[in-house]
Amino acid sequence: MSAALEDDARAESIRMIRDSAAAVAPPGGDLSRIRGLRFQAPGHDPATFRQMGEMGWIGLRVPEAQGGAGLGLGEACALAEELGAALVPEPLIPAMLSASLLAAVGGGPLEALLAGTALPLVAWQERADTLEVPGTPDAPR
């Protein structure tokens, strides 16, 4: 495929992602929804998160062979921009990062995460001394 055709296909892909996000997310955000979810566990709407999984957004950067869409960073950024503009509180970016990590290491609840029915997250901002797990790595949990 020529570079011009690839660029056109990518631009079309980004446009479609923006359109789908705009169709789902309220324009300008829904502050009453966000305030209602803010201090209630889990802090987002699980049904909306599941819908994100059904639309393939969580697996946008996961290779197709592993159940994702296999798209690029430009598409992911376009989606994040639209959802950010709509003040969507669902943890899409952390879920996308977790999905990419699970796809890279092979294993874990990748299928459930891509479907939006599980939300395993990477504790990458936690202080190391707060993550101490008693026992040994091979001990039963």
Summarize the structure.
By secondary structure, the chain is an all-alpha fold. The chain contains 6 helices and no strands.
CATH topology: Butyryl-Coa Dehydrogenase, subunit A, domain 1
Give the SSE string. HHHHHH
Unreliable spans are none
**How much helix, percentage-wise, in residues?**
40-55%
**Integer tally of domains:** 1
Radius of gyration: 17 Å
CATH superfamily: Acyl-CoA dehydrogenase/oxidase, N-terminal domain
Mean pLDDT: 86
Structural category is mainly alpha
Number of helices: 6
Beta-strand content estimate: under 5%
Shape: globular
**Terminal residue distance:** 51 Å
The largest sheet, given as strand count, sense and whether it forms a barrel, is:
none
